[in-house]
Amino acid sequence: MSDVWHITHTEMVLRLLCATTLGGLIGLEREWNNHAAGFRTHILVCIGSTMIMLLSIYGFAEFVNEGSVRMDPARLAAQVISGIGFLGAGAILRNGSSVSGLTTAASIWVVAAIGLCVGAGFYFVSAVSTLFVLVSLFVLNKLEKHWMHRRRAQEIVIKVNFHTGSIGRIVSAFEEHRISLNKFYMKPDEKSNEAAGVKQVMDLHFSFKNPNSEKLLLAIETISTMVDVISLHTHHQLNAKRMKEQIA
């Protein structure tokens, strides 16, 4: 029987330790930034995929010499790649128009691939891939925030006592300060409507593409003084102290 189908216990332990280390390094970054899947989750995924790869290559070595048996080390590995998606899906959250958790879901999928590489003995590929992933999560994340900060849409949610003319006055306030509206939609605030009785409370969602921060603050100051406005919330930090003073 060929030695390619055999592995020592020492080598198995080495591969599992390698998977724990590499998966932990990526998970540590996710844990540090308070994401849903963190340190332990990434370690478990990496160890699990390494175990399955070891099983796929070496677990059926006793059947190699059987005439009707064909070994396929990639069979179980393919199931890991497709099956790990349920963990990634659990990390993705949608809140209105914003989606979070995509990077964490991708990191889980990559960690599974790294675990498969470790299980197959591809140490160099595993180490280099882990390095690239860490660079992507640490370095490129900061560069992306720096480059894309001014290109991202500014979202504002305004809770109002809805009646004829209330939306028009708010839109006019933005137009007076030369702020172009990108998207707008509104929906009833069910909790407030139950408590308010007759009055109908609506949540107005405004989205602006690359607005001038000073002009937007001036518009917010004007809107916050309107009688119909109950509260105002912005998804991006413009000037926290000034916002609190105006909305309080």
UniProtKB/TrEMBL annotation:
InterPro entries: MgtC/SapB/SrpB/YhiD_fam, MgtC_SapB_SrpB_YhiD_N. Its main location: membrane. This is MgtC/SapB family protein. The keyword Cell membrane applies. Keywords: Cell membrane, Membrane, Transmembrane, Transmembrane helix. Signal peptide: none annotated. It is a multi-pass membrane protein. Coiled coil: none annotated. The chain crosses the membrane at residues 12-29, 41-64, 76-96, 108-141. It is found in: Cell membrane. Residues 16-145 form the MgtC/SapB/SrpB/YhiD N-terminal domain. It comes from the Bacteria. Belongs to the MgtC/SapB family.
